[in-house]
Amino acid sequence: MTPNWILQRAGLTPDRVAISWGDQRWTFREVADRAMDIARKMRGNGLKEGDRVALLAAGGPDTVFLIHGGLLAGFELVLLNSRLTRAELAYQIQDSEAKAVFTDDALLDLAPDSMAVSRLLSGEEEDFQPAELWEEDRTLTIMYTSGTTGFPKGVRQTAGNHLSSAIASALNMGLQDGDVWLCAMPLFHISGFSILSRSLIYGMTVRLQTKFDAEASAEEIADGGVTRMSAVAAQLVRVLDILESRNQRASDSFQQILAGGGPVPSPYIRRAEALGIQILQTYGMTETSSQTATLSAEDALRKSGSSGKPLFFNRIRIDGAEKPGDEGEILISGPHVTPGYIGRFSDSPAQVDGWLHTGDIGRLDDEGFLYVLDRRSDLIISGGENIYPAEIEQVLAGHPSVAEVGVAGVEDKRWGQVPAAFVVARDAVPSEDLEVFCRERLAPYKVPKHYQFVSELPRNASNKLLRRELKTMLEQQE
């Protein structure tokens, strides 16, 4: 059993700031009160504890209140991605078998059969007492995987999953009085929701952005408004660009940026260190309720490029590896791993013999540090040689004229596949210059055979690169 985090935190530190957004502040007591009002309205719609309910919301403090209200009402919350199309959302709503869908008024066109939040708040309510304790195997949230290939899977995340993830994170990163975590990640994504759950468990303030704002993030880091931040590489580089252009550094109170969503190119890490920003690379996924491995502060410089060691409760092994350094699929075990899926994939086991098969390729060094190489599905096989797109991206990201870069494999009659680079340039640069740059740093077979300059890279809601769309972009040009 675990205490109901919302009620427990409101009782322990009622007057501490829980959420700040713009110039507004809400204490933990105020958040709990607002959430309870919403919970009564939700239950007033004939719903009961244990029902599965979907939420479609754009972000911001009202989304926090809505999520916490659903948790207090005792529902299994399906957190829908507000950046999907109507058809994509319809699939997830149907697959989840949600008994109700509550939607921000501005998003009703995406889910026309749902109930608007304004209608919910003006409706009947049911007076009830929320559970003071939660079973650790109780499903709190359901999130659909990114769906970068095939059908997205609805992943069950229990109270125990979220709790063990939060505790393991704190044991690694530490906690300090006055911690403020900048949340610029979508709340329907595990990277965003995990910050909300940590806030309740730690008693920590969340500085909320409705959507990522690079200018505001850089300002908060420089002026001491926040102490931590979660980001992916694409967000990180924008913050670094702004700080460098302003000749600013991180304030002394700023601790670190937790960087996930894929490997962070080494040039970004060096730039961040020069600005007084410590980058802790992390590795996790929807199925693991956020982090599985994270680099510790003491190893951040020594093991730059690594995602660290497994956090306290967790285990990682490389499938088929016989010695340190052998590459293979990353397998994960621990109390943070999902018990399973819902809907279409409800009969698919999440774990095989106690291990989650991630589909990611990595290696463990002789000290047990994890290096994530790439998604197995993104692997380029060229003339029998394995090429990891992330390795090429790391190199090209170090070119001074490259702002962002994505690499994907494209079909080739001779080699089967060859790498192609898609570049967002800072300033004009000939593709020949990029080729020379790569040839000085990569084996010949890894050097991209095509370079395409684009205004932006295709990304999903969590800012992960969509490599399949890169291939489509090149095909459309041919």
UniProtKB/TrEMBL annotation:
Residues 9-341 form the AMP-dependent synthetase/ligase domain. The keyword DNA-binding does not apply. One of its GO terms (molecular function) is o-succinylbenzoate-CoA ligase activity. It catalyses: 2-succinylbenzoate + ATP + CoA = 2-succinylbenzoyl-CoA + AMP + diphosphate. Gene3D superfamilies: 3.30.300.30, N-terminal domain of ligase-like. Transmembrane segments: none annotated. Pathway: Quinol/quinone metabolism; menaquinone biosynthesis; Quinol/quinone metabolism; 1,4-dihydroxy-2-naphthoate biosynthesis; 1,4-dihydroxy-2-naphthoate from chorismate: step 5/7. Keywords: ATP-binding, Ligase, Menaquinone biosynthesis, Nucleotide-binding. Residues 391-464 form the AMP-binding enzyme C-terminal domain. It comes from the Bacteria. The keyword Cell membrane does not apply. PROSITE patterns: AMP_BINDING. InterPro entries: AMP-bd_C, AMP-bd_C_sf, AMP-binding_CS, AMP-dep_synth/lig_dom, ANL_N_sf, MenE. It is an enzyme of class 6 (ligase). Belongs to the ATP-dependent AMP-binding enzyme family. MenE subfamily. HAMAP family: MenE. This is 2-succinylbenzoate--CoA ligase. The gene is menE.
